[in-house]
Amino acid sequence: MYKVTISKEAVNEMPMVTFPGKIYIIDSISMVNEAVRVLRKYDIVGFDTETRPSFRRGVVHKVALLQLSTPNECFLFRLNKIGMPSSLKRYLEDENKVKVGLSVHDDFNALRRLVEINPQGFIDMQHLAVKSSISDISLQKIYAILFGERISKSQQLSNWEAESLSEAQQRYASIDAWACINIYTYLLSGEFIPENSPYYTYIEDEEAK
């Protein structure tokens, strides 16, 4: 069968993605309501979370950062400092507000280790990618296939509970949420035709063996 797939080497040769908008760090309760008010103005918001990595077996940290991005700005909610404020929780549970992310159930599980929550209104980009014949379901590879740019993963294993987030961490976290908006919009537009992609390749069906 034919699928759209890309090699790691091809991704590494692509130019790096840059985040074009403003980044707001929400690290106090007083900042939350205004940030949520802005987010509610948008029909679609990109979503992601970050958790401090653990290098010890059996040790799992609580989610530290929640990213919500519009096309022009990204809000970084430092949950390790502010917890889950009620206005933010209501937004995440609002089925009428569309939030798009990648492998969102993993994020939900991380959030539920912090607070009892029932996220609604979420769309998983992995499902859209599969429907578009894209076999690679990582954010980096989906974005590379669609836009010919590389999302850096260099900050993925950094300390998301640090006293202050570095500029590199802020950019990384913002891009991960913002990229989901671009993927969602492009795939829903119908402009992506798998057969026309330079990465449209025959893949042997393991189930058919």
> What is the name of the CATH topology?
Nucleotidyltransferase, domain 5
The overall number of domains is: 1
What's the number of extended β-strand segments?
8
List the total number of helices.
8
Distance between the termini: 12 Å
Largest sheet: 6 strands, mixed
3D shape:
globular
Proportion of residues in β-strands: 15-25%
Note the topology:
Elements: E1 2-4, H1 8-12, E2 22-26, H2 32-39, E3 44-51, E4 63-69, E5 73-78, H3 79-82, H4 86-92, E6 98-101, H5 104-112, E7 122-124, H6 125-131, H7 139-147, H8 167-189, E8 200-202
Parallel strand pairs: 2-5, 3-6, 6-7
Antiparallel strand pairs: 1-8, 3-4, 4-5
Helix pairs in contact: 7-8
How would you describe this structure to a colleague?
With 209 residues, this protein is α/β, with parallel strands linked by helices. The protein has one domain: Nucleotidyltransferase, domain 5, CATH 3.30.420. Helices cover 34% and strands 19% of the residues. It contains 8 helices and 8 strands, in the order βαβαβββααβαβαααβ. Strands 2-5-4-3-6-7 form a 6-stranded mixed β-sheet, sandwiched between helices. A two-stranded antiparallel sheet has the order 1-8. Helix 7 packs across helix 8. It is globular, with a radius of gyration of 18 Å.
